What does this fold into?
Amino acid sequence: AVVSTQSTGDHQFHPSAVFASTVFGFSHLIWFHSVGAEIFSLNNLFCGLLLYWVVRFQKADVANRARVAMEASFLSGLSMCNQHTSGLFIVVIGGWMFLSLLKDKAITVQQFVHTGVAFGVALIPYIQLPVSAFFAKAPSTWEISAL
It folds into this structure.
């Protein structure tokens, strides 16, 4: 409902947005997979935040769109550290943002590099895997990767 209000900007009551939010919020599967801070609940959080950043990108003036895209890129990297299926979501959103920036001539090469660096910095939690595998003496398994 918040995304609908933010995207339209008219601050009117949107029954369809309230209905969709309610159905999503009270869905059995959402609550079933959200009982712990694990993959599914964090994936829902990251996908919801990415949708919010899409709205922020769309509403931003042309001069600020590259900054919003860099923030979304960082969030996308964190999302990829949580669950790889969010990559399907990220490819579409990132492609649309990049094409929009190119069409509006709103991004420079330096801003594009900074956006890529933001994505790479967000992938830093992946460093934990080889480090923990080295200390746990289990380099060939994902199950024993805790320090």
About this structure: The longest helix spans residues 39-59. The helical segments are 2-8, 15-25, 28-33, 39-59, 65-82, 86-103, 109-122, 128-136.
